[in-house]
Design a protein that fits this description.
Length: about 350
Amino acid sequence: MRYPEIISFDSIVDHLSQFDCIIDVRSPAEFAEDHIPGAINCPILDNEERIRVGTIYKQVGSFEAKRIGAAIIASNIGKHLATQFQDKGKNWRPLVYCWRGGNRSGAMAHIFAKIGWPVAQLEGGYKAYRQHVNQTIPELIKGIEWKVLCGTTGCGKSRLLRTLAAMGEQILDLEELARHRGSVLGDIPAEKQPSQKMFESRIWTVLRSVDKNKPVFVEAESKKVGNLRVPDEMMTGIRESACISVEMPIDVRVQLLMEDYAHFVENPSILNRQLDYLTHLHGKEKILQWKKQVLEGEITRVVQSLLEEHYDPAYNKSIERNFSQFKDAQAIVQTGLTPNDFSRSAQQILSKNTSA
């Protein structure tokens, strides 16, 4: 075999574990937007260097950009060799990729091959991977039996989903993948949502492991989770699937939300900023009333008002319209928040699904 081996993503997608390391040589900003699952970032042009070389390319010309870029790239590859890869043996087999599978990955793969490592270079780079994800998500969705957890805000759907996962069931936790709790107040403090591409990569990773002989449990979501859009084919399949209606007394729902949204109690100003997004629905007077109550420490009262006046009416208006099988949903009534409470609900769901 002659190295570097130029290899297509389609030919290795089911054998990524054959590589000892998947190396993304793009800039940190490119890597942060999205990357092949499991890859590490070893940039041979960092964010500033990439901008500098690109500017020279546009303003001066390709020769000058390549000359200056080559010196930077050679220096950076040398640093990675002296640190990240200094202890790798002669049989170490990495896969290297960049944006299009051209100069950046080619430079590192060439040096690795000269050292003697059996290196592979991804043909088409990240763009080939991204194309594969776009093409295969609709195929991976086909044939999945979705079981949809429906219920008003704060009824414990996410906790129930995690309980089902702990019991060995297949789940797709879209809110976890999107790093968002799925409502206007659903931002997670100090966490930024991933890019749309990264969100889809995470979905693709989960779908690849699905056993289509078993159901996949998922929460009823709107078409967007925070700022991220759920793939259309997935949304259609979920909305046409069997539903499980999770019911919980409103006082218990308020307790759950106070636990899950403790950051609002610790920093009421965050909640008040989020309430501004509801002004067009409830008017300035109502929003000012809620904000005043928040500042006076009456957050529990505000949470109950939000459930009764905002979330529940919206849910009741949309659920049967968007989920065609909701009228035949299995009803689960949960009155507590202990792990045993969620385990009992999960067992009730599984008992019904096993006997169905």
